[in-house]
Amino acid sequence: FMVFDHFLKYNGQILHFEYTDQLQGTFSPVHGNPFYDSQSTVWTGPRIAKRTERRAGQVTGVTTMRVAVDGKSYTANARRTIPNGRVYTSTIVWNRLND
Question: Phi then psi for 87, rounded to 5 degrees?
C-alpha cells in the first residue's frame, strides 16, 4: 500500500513524505518525514489502524486512525517525541474528496 502525503503545515511550509506500508506490522522506511524514518501499521479493529513510528531504530510515536462508518473521513490521533525532544500531540480529521 503506497502512501504519499503532501500537505501545508500551520507555518506555511509544505511537508511531503512517502512510504510503502505492508499493513502487517512490518516496519517500512519513510522518506521525507522529519518526525520518523520508519513506520509499521496494523489494523486493530474493522475501522481502526495503529501506526507505530520510529526514528533511528527507537519508537518515537504512535498514531491511531479511525475510519468513519460512512468511509468518507478518518480521524488520526498522534502522540510522538519530535527531534528536539518535545512531545507533540495532534488530532487531524481527513475528509475524502472523491467517492
Answer: -85, 135
**In this structure, are residues 60 and 67 in contact, taking their beta carbons and an 8 Å threshold?**
no
The pLDDT assigned to 96 comes to: 81
Radius of gyration of the chain (CA): 13
Q: Among 32, 36, 2, which residue's Cα sits nearest to residue 16?
A: 32
Within a 10 A sphere around the Cβ of 52, how many other Cβ atoms?
17
Low-confidence ranges of the chain (pLDDT < 50): none
**For residues 55 and 83, what is the distance between their CA atoms, to the nearest angstrom?**
9
Of 12, 94, 17, give the one whose Cα is nearest residue 49. 94
Q: What pLDDT was estimated at residue 8? A: 74
Question: Residue 46 has which C-alpha cell?
Answer: 474493522
